[in-house]
Amino acid sequence: MRKAIMIMGIGLFLAGPIAKIYHLDHANNYMIASGLGLVMITVLAFIKKK
Hints:
transmembrane helix; mainly alpha; membrane; single chain
């Protein structure tokens, strides 16, 4: 489960800059999702594995 959340966080983190580069519609919403992905990655980095 942890690995799946990490992959989803990385995907969201990369979606924002890619949307800006390709000038997609609603690129600002993708940047918000990118911030959410960054938060997910950061949280998983500080939560210790059991």
